[in-house]
Design brief:
about 180 residues; single chain; alpha/beta; 6 strands; disordered N terminus; four-stranded parallel beta sheet; 6 helices
């Protein structure tokens, strides 16, 4: 499947709900949109589809360092080794209309939480949350940026992406289907 604003899982799947809110669109956010958020987007797209959830997912960065670039080659390798293809992704920066377009903007760490909150119109700040805690994971609170790290750091992004997305699926009331 492709990535980006027009990419969606199959349209015949039921939308997910959290309480009385129907969750149709989630934006995953990190700093440059080349390491963490595109991998989590790829994990979410795959696992939401397997769980039968019709949720549009996308990712963006708070900064414009890498706009138009593909994900970091180490992120691509770690994701692909676990069955997630993020190769079609191109980095983009958060845009003003993202705050109204997405039901939830899930941020990878506190630094980007502060940056995103400062960018958001007041009426849409409640749509912003930390990814792992909102997904029900107590530790780690931040999903560490692997950019200056080693292969294991990139593999950890995939691991915590899977755990976090599984937490989202559980929060949305849909158990993940086992193949």
């Amino acid at each position: 499947m492709g990535f980006g604003a027009n990419s969606r899982v199959s349209r015949y799947l039921p939308p997910a709900s959290v309480g009385s809110m129907t969750m149709k669109r989630i934006l995953f956010v990190c700093m440059g949109n080349i390491c963490r958020s595109p991998v989590v987007e790829a994990v979410a797209r795959s696992r939401f589809a397997r769980a039968g959830l019709d949720i549009e997912v996308d990712s963006a960065g708070t900064e414009d360092y890498h706009v138009g670039e593909p994900p970091d080659r180490r992120s691509l390798a770690s994701a692909l080794a676990r069955g997630y293809d993020a190769s079609a992704h191109r980095a983009r920066q958060v845009e003003a209309d993202d705050f109204a377009r997405f039901d939830k903007l899930l941020v990878m760490d506190r630094m980007n939480l502060r940056a995103l909150t400062s960018m958001a119109p007041g009426e849409n700040r409640d749509r912003i949350a930390m990814f792992l805690p909102w997904a029900g994971l107590e530790e780690p609170h931040d999903l560490p940026d692997p950019y200056y790290g080693h292969t294991q750091d990139f593999d950890n992004v995939v691991t915590f992406g899977e755990r976090g997305v599984d937490g989202l699926i559980a929060r949305l009331g849909k158990p993940i289907k086992v193949r």
